Amino acid sequence: MWSSTFLLLTAATYTAAAGYCSVNTLATNTTWMQFTKEPVPLEYGFEDKFKSIYCCVKGYRSIQWFKDGVAYPWSAGVSSFILYPEAANQTLYSQRAARADSGNYTCRMSNETHSETHTVRLEIQEKPSDEPKTMFISKDQWVEEGMDLRLYCEALIGRSYLADARSDLRWMKVWPNGTEGDLLITQTEIKTKRDDVEDIIGSYLDFGRVAARDYGTYACVVHSNDLVSRSYVTVHYKYGGTSMLDWSGDSDVPWKALVLGTVAGALFIASLLMLHKRCTPRLLLALRQARARTSTAAHRARVLEKEFDVLVCWTPVDAELVRGALLPTLTLKYKYRVHATQLSTQPDHWYTEIMSETARCRSVLVVMSPAQYTPQHLLVAFRQLAALPQPPVVVLLQDLPNLKREAKEVGERACSLLRRSRLVAWRHVHDRAFWTQLRLHLPLPPRAQQVKSETTDNKNSRSGSLTALV
Ligand SMILES: *[C@@H]1O[C@H](CO)[C@@H](O)[C@H](O)[C@H]1NC(C)=O
Ligand SMILES: *[C@@H]1O[C@H](CO)[C@@H](O)[C@H](O)[C@H]1NC(C)=O
Ligand SMILES: *[C@@H]1O[C@H](CO)[C@@H](O)[C@H](O)[C@H]1NC(C)=O
Ligand SMILES: *[C@@H]1O[C@H](CO)[C@@H](O)[C@H](O)[C@H]1NC(C)=O
Ligand SMILES: *[C@@H]1O[C@H](CO)[C@@H](O)[C@H](O)[C@H]1NC(C)=O
C-alpha cells in the first residue's frame, strides 16, 4: 500500500518535471542549439515543498549544471536538487526544497562547437506573501511587419484568501493616451500555470504575424490579493530593408508628363483628379514641382545658400526606422540633401539641440513616438518644437493622445501648440500617400542640374583664384 502510494507520487513528480519543457514551445524549424521557450531567470519555491527548475533547449549535445559555481552532482550541504535524466538533463528538482537550496543555478549546454549558459536565481521562501513578484517579462522588441511574435510574462502571486480580492495576471494594451485597454481581437492570450508551484502563473501574448496596429506598449498586470504590479514591454517597428532595389525605377514619371503639358491641360486634369480626394496631394506636389522649374535664378541661389534641405531629428527608440527607412528614402529616392541628428529621449532641451543644427538647413523634420511619453512629456515636447523659429514637420509613429486635459491644467491650449507643428502620421515605408504628404510639407530639393552647376561654378572660381595666385 505504502509503496504504491510512493510510486504514484514519484510518477506524478516525474510528469510534472518533464512536462514543462514540452509545452508552449517556440515554433521554429531550425535545428541548431537554442532555447525552446523564454528562459526564466528567477524562480521561487517554498520550504518543504516540491520545486523544479529548467533549462529548455534543443539541438545540444550535453547540459551541465552548476550551483553558485559548483558542478553537479551536489553534496547535501550544497543543494538537495537532483537531475531528472528522463528530461534529458533539462530539469532539476527537489521533493522538499530547503532555504539552503536558494542560489544561482547555471546550466551550460554545449554542441560540438559552441556552449551557452543560462542562470536561474532560485529563492526558497518560508511562506507565501501577498506581494506579486514578476519573474519574467519579455524585453522590448524590434520587429518587422509580418514577423511572428509572442511576449511572455510570469509572476509569483499570493493565493487569494479575501473573498472579493482577485489574484491573476493578464496582458493589457497601453493606448497612446496612457490608458490601459483590452487586447485587440487578433491578439490572443494563453495563460500558463506550473505543476511545481501553483502560485506561479504566466501568460503568453501571441500576435501571430505582426501588423501595423500591433506596434506600441503592452502592460503585464499582476493582481495579488489587493496588490497590483505592472511591467511594460514596447513593440517597436523595425525596417525590413528589402526595398532599395525598387527605387531605381522612379515613380515620378507620370508627373513629368504632366509638367510637360500646358498650364491649361494641367488645370483640366486637375479638375478631373480633384474628384479623387486621394490624388489631390500628389497633384499639389506636381504643381509645386512645375512651378519650381520656372523659378528664377535668384530663387535657386537662395535654395543653395543652405547646405541641407532637411534636418531630420529622432530619439533613440526610432533610430532603426529612421536610419533604415526614412533617411535612405529621403536621400536616395527623393534626392533631399539631409542632415541628421539624434535627440535625447527626454524632450526638455530639444529646442537647444535642434537650434544648434538648424542654421545650415532649410527645414526641420522630427520623428516622434508618442507612445514613449506621458501626456505631460508630450506637451513639453510640443512646447519645445513650437519655440523653433520655423514650424517643424513632425512624423508621428503612433496616434497622438488627446492632450486637451493636460494642457488645460497648465493653462495652455493644446491645439494652439500643435498648430505650430505640421503633423504627418507614419504609415509604411512603401506608402506613397505618406511620402506625398511629407514632401508637400518639406521644401522641394534642388534639381540635380542645379547642384551640379553650383559645384562646377565652385571649381571654376577656385581654379580661377589658383590661376590668379600663379
Ligand atoms: C518550416 O519550414 C517549412 C519548409 O521549409 C516552411 O514552409 C515553414 O513556414 C517553416 N515553419 C516555420 C515556423 O518557420
Ligand atoms: C552550435 O550551436 C550554435 C548556436 O548556438 C550554432 O551556430 C552552431 O552551428 C552549432 N554547431 C553545430 C556543430 O551544430
Ligand atoms: C546528464 O547529466 C549526467 C550527470 O551530470 C551526465 O553524466 C550526462 O552526460 C548528462 N547527459 C546529457 C545529455 O547532458
Ligand atoms: C546570484 O547572482 C546575483 C546576481 O548575479 C547576485 O546578486 C547574488 O549574490 C548571487 N547569489 C549567490 C548566492 O551567489
Ligand atoms: C484612450 O484611447 C483609447 C483608444 O484610442 C480610447 O478607447 C479611450 O477611450 C481613450 N481614453 C481616454 C481617457 O481618453
TrEMBL record:
Biased composition (Polar residues): 461-470
Transmembrane region(s): 253-275
Domain Ig-like: residue ranges: 62-123, 132-236
Residue span of region Disordered: 448-470
SUPFAM superfamilies per record: Immunoglobulin, Toll/Interleukin receptor TIR domain
Keyword tags: Disulfide bond, Early protein, Glycoprotein, Host-virus interaction, Immunoglobulin domain, Inhibition of host innate immune response by virus, Inhibition of host interferon signaling pathway by virus, Interferon antiviral system evasion, Membrane, Signal, Transmembrane, Transmembrane helix, Viral immunoevasion
Pfam short name (any one): I-set
Highest rank taxon of the organism: Eukaryota
A GO BP entry: symbiont-mediated suppression of host type I interferon-mediated signaling pathway
Signal peptide positions on this chain: 1-17
Role according to the record: Counteracts the antiviral effects of host IFN-alpha/beta and key IFN-inducible proteins involved in viral RNA degradation suxh as host OAS1. Acts as a soluble IFN-alpha receptor and thus inhibits the interaction between host IFN-alpha and its receptor.
Subunit structure: Interacts with host IFNA1.
Protein name, per record: Soluble interferon alpha/beta receptor OPG204
Source organism per UniProt: Diatraea saccharalis
